[in-house]
Each structure stands twice: as structure tokens, then as C-alpha cells.
Sequence to fold (110 residues):
Amino acid sequence: MRLIEEILPPFILMENVPGIKTDFNNAILSEFLQRLKAKFSLGVARYNIQELSDDENRNNAINDLKMAVPKLKLISKDDSLVEDVEKFIQLKNKEQFNILVNRLRKDLYK
Fold:
């Protein structure tokens, strides 16, 4: 959580791995989610990714990005990053995806 609070990424994607919502972890998870809510808009979608087609997985990823754009515009000082995200959403091609991934990697490792 400390890393997230320090770098304030434009969005966070979490996977509900087995055991994350156990009685043992409940207090930790609750605190973590409360701290996230203080800094981010939270959306929860539950599905078994193994049951989804490639197209459904792709569409879910695109929709997650679309929901992140308004927040990204508020917190990013780099307008070209926002433009790259919007361009990927529009074109949905591998080349633009690779451009976006490389941009995000560079931003995370500054």
C-alpha cells in the first residue's frame, strides 16, 4: 500500500486470489480497501476469468481503461499519457497496446 500511496498510479487492477478473503486476512484487506478508497474510485467486478472468451477479456480490459481515463486526467501531469490511453481505447490494436505498456513501464520506473 505504501508504494501505491507514494506513486499514485493512474489505476490499479487487483485479482481476488484464493485465500485473500479469509477470516485471517479480513482485517488487513478491510484496511487496505479503506486506504484505497481514500485515494481512488473503486469499482468491483466479479467473474471467473477462466470462463471468459478472449474477446470478453479484451472488452473487460478496455472498459476498465475507459473508467480510469477521467481519474487519469485529474492526476496525471503528462497529457501525452492520457492521449496514449485514449488512442489505445479507440484503435484497440497490438501496436498501440505495446506503446501504452512501454509508456506505463517508464512512468513506473522513474
User: Anything to note?
Assistant: The chain has one domain: 2-108.
